[in-house]
Amino acid sequence: MTPRESALALLIEPNPEAKVTGLATLWTQAQAFDWPEASRSAVLQRTHAHEAAQVPGRPERPNLVAPGQVPTRSPFTIAGRAALIHAICHIEFNAINLALDAVWRYPDMPTAFYMDWLGVAYEESTHFALLAAHLRDLPNPEGPAWHYGDFTAHDGLWAMCEKTADDITARMALVPRTLEARGLDATPLIQAKLARIDAPDARAAIDILDIILRDEIGHVAIGNKWYHTLCDTHALDPIAHYRLLVDRHDAPQLKPPFNEAARKKAGFTDAELAYLLDLPPRG
């Protein structure tokens, strides 16, 4: 199989551990692959309708509910910290699928596009593995070890993936540089809360989040790069078109505080940051 076909196969793989293991192999293989034909061909979209109908592959658990129905718990309890780690673990699992979807879904892109998003998928899989292991290591005074799937979760990230399936520019605008970029803003706040807890697991979680934040800056930067490339290709103003896409796809309201330093590292321009800071409340 070509790397794009392999990306689709891993995207529909429901077992998280198999997805993680397969991505490590695919990432190694892709770096030695002769890409041009696979990059230009749209055959994948025509010949894999059955596989595409199974997108995305995920386990039976966690139970998915509306975002507002996910219970909130205090991180100052061990169960609350387990729920927090599980929520981030779920985000990383979705992020694996989002990156794999970008690889298989969009033909006729440069090789660099596919390698960028395969690299993102691989790094997201390492984040998932770190968090899943940390979750298992948390002491559970009420029963056996916690695992991914033990808490309820929501499907907001993948819902936006589906909304933007037919528009690669919208995908780049509203998934990596909108929904995933929110992690740049939220992570330091989560770390600050965990820093108030005098427990080894809280300190370990902070260290894992350091790794995730470092990598996520790079992932958002990739989204910014390809969004701006696509806007340049089609003579679109990045800010005006972003505003149009937010309205068209009913993207979530972005609210301060923004991690401006991290967003600048991720490629947001001063004009784009000013636009975000001046956003009025919606509704």
Domain module count: 2
Number of helices: 14
Rounded radius of gyration (Å): 19 Å
> Could you list the spans in which at least 5 consecutive residues all have pLDDT below 50?
none
Can you summarize the main beta sheet? 2 strands, parallel
Percentage of residues assigned to helices? 55-70%
Which oligomerization state do the chains in this entry correspond to?
single chain
Per the principal axes of the C-alpha atoms, what is the gross shape?
globular
- The largest sheet has its strands arranged as 1-2
Strand content: under 5%
- End-to-end separation in angstroms reads 47 Å
Characterization of this structure:
With 283 residues, this protein is mainly alpha-helical. The protein folds into two domains: 1-59 and 83-149, no CATH class; 154-283, no CATH class. It has helices spanning 3-11, 16-30, 36-40, 43-47, 49-52, 78-105, 111-137, 156-163, 168-179, 182-194, 200-233, 238-248, 260-265, 270-277; strands at residues 64-65, 153-154. Strands 1-2 form a two-stranded parallel ribbon. Helix 10 packs antiparallel against helix 11. The longest helix has 34 residues, at 200-233. The protein is globular and about 55 Å long.
Q: Which key phrases capture this entry?
A:
mainly alpha, two-stranded parallel sheet, 65% helix, 2 strands, globular, 283 residues, 2 domains
Helix and strand layout, with pairings?
Elements: H1 3-11, H2 16-30, H3 36-40, H4 43-47, H5 49-52, E1 64-65, H6 78-105, H7 111-137, E2 153-154, H8 156-163, H9 168-179, H10 182-194, H11 200-233, H12 238-248, H13 260-265, H14 270-277
Parallel strand pairs: 1-2
Helix pairs in contact: 1-2, 1-6, 2-7, 6-7, 7-11, 8-9, 9-11, 10-11
